[in-house]
Amino acid sequence: MKIAFVGAGSLVFTRKLVSDLLRQDATADAAFSLIDIHEGRLRDAQDSVESLVRSTGRKPSVEATTSCQRGVSGADYVINTIRVGGPEITRIDFDVPECYGVHQTIADTHGIGGISRAFRTIPQVLQIAAEVERESRTPGSSTTPIPWQ
User: What is the tally of structural domains in the chain?
Assistant: First the structure.
C-alpha cells in the first residue's frame, strides 16, 4: 500500500497522521510518499517521519519528492495538507475583515477568511486531483480510477 501526503511540509499534520497510521496494522508497513514544493520543509518532514518510523520498529518505506506526479504515482491513498500562500497570506485573512469590523477566531473553513483561503486553495486542489486522476490511469498503477466520472 502506498500513501501519499501532498503538502508534507506541514510537519505537524504529517507527523501526526503518520504516527496514527503506524499504530494501525493495516497501514503500519505502507510506503509513505512525502510531497512538498518547499525542499527545506520536505527534508524536515522526511527526517521527522524517518525518525518516527525508526522509533516504532515498523518497516515502511519513506520517499520524499517535490514532484506531485512522482509522489502520487501508484498511490492507494492521497492525503492533502497544503496551505497556499503561507503564514503571511493567512494573516491577511484575519486582518482585512477586521479592518471592516468582522472579527473571526479562525479563517480557514468559514467566514470571509475561509472564502479567501478557498479562492487560493481550490485551484491548487483541482490540479492535485487532476494529477491523481492521470496517475490512476497509468498502466500498472494500483490506484482505482476516480469513481465520480
Answer: 2
Answer yes or no: do 73 and 131 share one domain.
no
Q: Which residues contact 8 (CB under 8 A, 6 or more apart)?
A: 14, 34, 35, 36, 41, 42, 45, 46, 49, 64, 81
pTM, entire model? 0.83
pLDDT tens figures, 58-92:
889 999 999 999 999 999 999 999 989 888 888 88
CA 144 – CA 149 distance, rounded (Å): 12
Check if the beta carbon of residue 133 is closer than 8 Å to that of residue 72: no
Task: Write the single-letter amino acid at 128.
Answer: I
